[in-house]
Write a structure and sequence with these properties.
The chain is 18% helix and 22% strand. By secondary structure, the chain is of the alpha+beta class. It folds into two domains: 56 residues, no CATH class; 156 residues, tt1808, chain A (Alpha-Beta Complex). The strands form four sheets. The protein has a six-stranded mixed sheet, sandwiched between helices. Strands 1-2 form a two-stranded parallel sheet. The two termini are 32 Å apart.
Amino acid sequence: MIRPAEPDAPAHAARRLTLGPGDHGRPLTRDEYERAEYLGTWLYELVDGRLYVSPSPSPTHDWATSFLESHLRAHAAAHPEAFDHVTERAEVFRGEGTRPQPDLAAYRGYPRDPRALPRTWEAVSPVLVVEVISPGDPHKDLARNRRIYGEVASIEEYWIVDPRPASAGLLVLARPGSDDAAAATPDGWVEHPVPLDGAWESRRFPGLVVRPAAFLPS
C-alpha cells in the first residue's frame, strides 16, 4: 500500500511512521497503519495487528491477474446477478486489525450510483477473492489468507492461482453445499484442485468457467 504524502500535521498530532520491508511483523494500530508512509513498491497489509510486507508482483503474477480480471469483468457484465463489480484495489476487512488486499475481489450488489459509493472498503465485502501465489511466500495465500477469508462470511469462493512450474494450476476453495458438506475441511472449505489442463465450472456463480492453461505458462 503506497500513499502520497499529506500536508504537515499540527505539532500535537501523532507522529507519522515511515515503514519499509524491514518493518515486516511490526505491531501497528489501525491509525498508525492508515497514517504511515510506505517505501518502495512493496505490498503492505495489516494482518492480526501486525504489518505484513510482500514483494511486488512478478510478470507471471501480473499476467495471471490481468487475464482473470478481464475474465471476471466479462462475466459480471453478462451475469450481474452473480457479481457486478471486480477490482484489484480492494481491502477485505476482518475485525479491527486485519485487512488483506487480494489480487482480485468481486462484489454483488455494488452501488451503481457514484454518489452512493462506500467511503472505505470496510463498508462492503466480496463474494469471490483471487490470489496468485508469490513463489517466495506461498504460505501467505495457502494458509494465512485461507484462514482469513474463511472467517469472512460473504466470501463464497476463494481462488488460489499457483504459477510455480512444479505445481501449476488452480485451487478453488468453496463453501460447502448440501451435496458436499461432508467433504468440508475443518476450516469450512471444500477443496477443488484444478490441474493446469483442467477447468473449473463454478457452482456458486453459474456460467463461470476458468481454465488455468489460458493464463499460466505450461
